[in-house]
Design brief:
alpha/beta, 21 strands, single chain, 13 helices, 29% helix
């Protein structure tokens, strides 16, 4: 009897949990590594005030672990973290987790046909298979602002929120107006002495319809799971019917809805002009909030659109020479989403380096396999984002990976790898499908500096599922 295939999973977030459940069901020997002290991934790291999901709770759940007790339409961070921890515990993943273990390097040996994972501390672990579950929102994007080292106040990224003291009573600078800022700015604004929001590019905001589920509704969901499933299905269909074409009626309607919402909520024409984007809705990440615009009506809040020149000892100086004195600088500047696996050095067959192979923009076969990297899989990989709940995509990818591992084991093979031709064919087709998509209508984190859209999937979730269901003969090499 051949020994069991060993698998190293990097990341204990939603993807790592889904992968662990698949591996446990298949009887594989696996270890899940994470730099944090437990499961949860991005929902463990992002603890900023107001942190919440922008996908409806009943859809932001595993299909096999529906939660009848979600408190409201869009769950907040503590509730999502508790859900993920519960799912991991229920499926017995605790003994497989190696916490406080950051993986810095991953290297393939053509001789031993195995991967070596090297931790930040230099310790090494060997596996037959590696699954990267670090995701897309792994490395915070902290802008390189001149003078940052001389600022005497505190500064931190929203994904590494400093809870050592409150921002209440402080003069605060928030740099950036992305998805995180839209949540934490309204949450902290009223209690600050003064809050300056530095905006480089305005964003479209749609109203967020977030309603609590009553105890009676929660009990109904528990007694009749089909009722919760119905809510999930409705949200799923709404995502599946979305169009991302720049000239689609839906894009025009979404842009007009956001424009009208801005007009209703911001009376000051000068402020309204500053908050009005010059691109269609959907080009940047769609955002929802009913608190963002009213925040700028507060007497202690200011929107600043003059570019930042530097940080001084006491604050932020803009290019017009004005110094904005602050106690705390918060970077709401998102993540290096287009720089997949930027936190890990990955070396494949023949010593090739993934970072070099992806120098013009990351790409993979079905967002999951990369030619030249046998037995290596990527969750939330290139071009898997944007069309549906990422939990749904995780389930598709982990089922796909499990199917390939079972196939490899069933045939007595030691390696499985996608061919270079199959990867090229898939990505040529995928990039051709980007033509006319709204993501090309502005600068955004979906695109690599080369201009290639590397994060978004131009197909529906269902189509992605269908493409992963049956391995295509000739697209893989088993040896």
């Amino acid at each position: 009897m051949s020994p069991r295939i060993t698998v190293g999973v990097i990341g204990a977030g939603a993807g790592g949990i889904a992968m662990g459940i698949q591996l446990a069901a298949g009887g594989y020997d696996f270890t899940i590594f994470d730099r944090a002290d437990g499961f949860g991934g991005t929902w463990r790291h992002n603890t900023f005030p107001g942190a919440a999901c922008d996908v409806p709770s009943h859809l932001y759940s595993y299909s096999f672990a529906l939660n009848p007790r979600w408190s409201k339409t869009y769950a907040n961070q503590p509730e999502i973290l508790a859900y993920l921890e519960n799912v991991a515990a229920t499926h017995g993943l605790g003994p497989h987790l190696r916490p406080h273990t950051a993986i810095a390097g991953v290297r393939w040996s053509d001789d031993s046909k195995r991967w070596t994972l090297t931790t930040a501390g230099g310790r090494q672990y060997d596996f037959d298979v590696v699954v990267s579950a670090v995701g897309m929102l792994d490395v915070p994007n902290v802008p390189n602002i001149p003078g940052a080292q001389r600022f005497r106040g505190r500064q931190f990224h929203s994904a590494r929120w400093d809870h050592s003291r409150s921002t209440a009573g402080e003069r605060v600078a928030s740099i950036g107006t992305g998805a995180s800022a839209v949540q934490y700015v309204p949450a902290i604004a009223r209690d600050t002495a003064h809050l300056t929001v530095f905006q480089r590019t305005p964003i479209w905001i749609a109203p967020r319809f977030d309603f609590p589920f009553s105890p009676a509704q929660q009990e109904e969901f528990e007694r009749h799971p089909e009722m919760a499933q119905k809510l999930r299905d409705e949200a799923f269909e709404a995502y599946e019917s979305a169009s991302f074409d720049v000239d689609a009626a839906q894009t025009r309607e979404a842009t007009e809805l956001a424009r009208n919402y801005l007009a209703r909520k911001v009376a000051d024409p000068e402020l309204r002009a500053k908050l009005t984007p010059d691109y269609p809705a959907g080009c940047k990440r769609p955002l929802m909030s009913r608190e963002w615009y009213p925040t700028f009506a507060l007497p202690n809040v200011r929107l600043e659109t003059t570019a930042i020149a530097e940080l001084t000892e006491h604050g932020v100086r803009t290019v017009d020479g004005v110094e904005h004195r602050v106690d705390t600088v918060i970077y709401g500047t998102g993540f290096k989403a287009a720089d997949y696996l930027d936190s890990i050095e990955v070396f494949g067959s023949g010593g090739r380096q993934l970072r070099e192979d992806w120098r013009d923009g990351a790409e993979a076969y079905l967002g999951t396999l990369v030619s030249g990297y046998p037995n290596f899989f990527v969750l939330y990989g290139p071009n898997t984002n944007g069309v549906n709940s990422i939990i749904y995509i995780h389930e598709i990818q982990t089922t796909f990976i499990r199917r390939l591992l079972d196939l490899m084991g069933g045939r007595g093979a030691r390696t499985v790898e996608v061919t270079a031709g199959a990867q090229r064919r898939y990505n040529d087709e995928l990039q051709a499908a980007m033509t006319g998509k709204v993501w090309l209508a502005c600068t955004n984190y979906f695109r690599h500096p080369s201009g290639k859209v590397v994060t978004q999937l131009p197909y529906s979730g269902r189509e992605f599922f269908e493409r992963t269901r049956t391995p295509v003969a000739g697209d893989y090499v088993l040896s």
